[in-house]
Amino acid sequence: MKPRPPTMREKRRYILVRLVPEIPADPKVLYTTLLDSVTSIFGDLGAARIHMAVVYSAGPYAILRCRRGMEQDLMIALSTVCAVGSRRLVVRTQKISGTIRSLKEKIPPDQESCDEDISINGESCHVSHRHGVKIDLFEKGFKNRELLFLTTMDIEETECNHNTRWDTTGQ
Amino acid sequence: MNATDACVFPYPHGDSSTMRMALEAKMLGFDSMVAIDHPGFSTGDFHVIPGIIINVRTISALGQALKRSNREGMIVLVNAGDTTFNRAALGMKGVRVLRNVYVTDRHSFDHVSARIATDKSVAIDIDLYPIIHFRGVQRQRVLERYYDVIRLQERFGFDITLSSGATSILDQRSPAEMIALCSLFGMNESGASHALSSVARILKPRPLVEVVS
Questions:
Q1: Residue B54: what pLDDT?
Q2: Of A40, A79, A166, which has the smallest distance from its Cβ to B173's Cβ?
Q3: Would the N or C end of chain A have less CB density within 10 A of its end CB?
């Protein structure tokens, strides 16, 4: 089959996104979630106009495709994503470009996953992710699997003040 | 302060500490945020402004709450109620922002309330949390109410504040995303940018009489 000449092809834009917390997501699940979000806010007609697709996924980063001129609408839809599957997360737009290659260059090399336990006031906590002073952790135990987003300063402060206990119930 | 998130709820309301939310807001492009029930502080060029939400149904209760909570440099936000309550609340000294307008009846914030808000320099908060988290009819209702608020704002010119209403860093959105979300209910880019800097104007209101020479 003869390919369509470049001048007759539709122009596309590619968006580099980062998932926070930085846990890799299955591209298919990510696509259905994003499409659901696009359809929810712009309807079927808007979704067809945006023509969104997940073209590349590497760890917490993904490259999305859309029709040129529809980047703003896709950005709005991305900002309304609150969860992928059963996991709470946010999709942060990093960069918009006309080529996939230029966006791939912007993806930082793989960071080593953090797998350590720390103790706060005698409570054992599992560190899920650590980046600079930022620490994502959850308290150990089958009941509590909600992430807490803290900093090293918060942990030092909590160590000083033994009466404070990080607890997702807020009690 | 060019871009301020007008209302966030750090721990214990949510799962993120004030410092972590401040770092996230700074990374997203804000230069300040209003943290509810937390003391204010600054980290570098980022400012955390203390805020308090008053959630009462009667004017007398609001008056008592205002006496207890009105402090220098603190943003006092009042949850909106019915028409009478809103009109009275907007006229009370110490009230800086009226929020949760989308929860109330359609006629609770009307042209009379809009004029009082303009005269008394009270801002109306546009909380983006329901637009991000609600789906279907619920979100349509919120968009409808915000569209009405924007129409009144264009006519009367009262201040608007934009807030994420975030209880976690996962709920925080960048100024660019907030501006984009505002386009959903008819707020233009310049209007949304102006709204992001409203908190600075609320903290330092223009004097009634200005000496020019």
A1: 95
A2: A79
A3: N
- Beta bridge partners of residue B48, listed in sequence order: B33, B41
Q: Which residues contact A92 (CB under 8 A, 6 or more apart)?
A: A17, A18, A19, A20, B174
Query: Which among B19, B170, B177 is the nearest to A151, CB-wise?
Result: B19
CATH of the domain at B39: 3.20.20.140
Contacts of A133 in chain B (CB under 8 A): 23
pLDDT per position as a tens digit, B36-90: 999 999 988 999 999 999 999 999 999 999 988 867 788 999 999 999 999 999 9
pLDDT tens for residues A55-80?
999 989 999 999 999 999 999 999 99
Contact B11, A170 (CB under 8 A): yes
pLDDT digits (tens, 9 = 90+) for A2-54: 889 988 989 999 999 999 888 888 899 999 999 999 999 999 999 999 999 99
Q: Which domain holds residue B63?
A: 4-203
Q: How many whole angstroms separate alpha carbon A72 and alpha carbon A70? A: 6
CA distances from A74 to A48, A88, A91, A139, B197 (A): 12, 20, 11, 36, 26
Class of the CATH-defined domain A10-106: alpha beta
Q: How far apart are CA A129 and CA A145, in angstroms?
A: 14
Tell me, what's the pLDDT at A171? 39
When mean pLDDT is compared across A22-36, A147-161, B168-182, the lowest value belongs to A147-161
- Asked whether residue B77 is domain-assigned, the answer is yes
Q: What is the pTM of this model?
A: 0.90
Question: Do B15 and A76 count as a contact with CB atoms less than 8 A apart?
Answer: no
For residue A79, which residues of chain B lie inside 8 Å, CB to CB? Answer: 132, 173, 177, 180-181
* Residue B82 phi, psi dihedral angles, 5° rounding: -80, 180
How many distinct structural domains can be found in chain B? 1
* β-pairing verdict for B75-79 and B41-43: unpaired
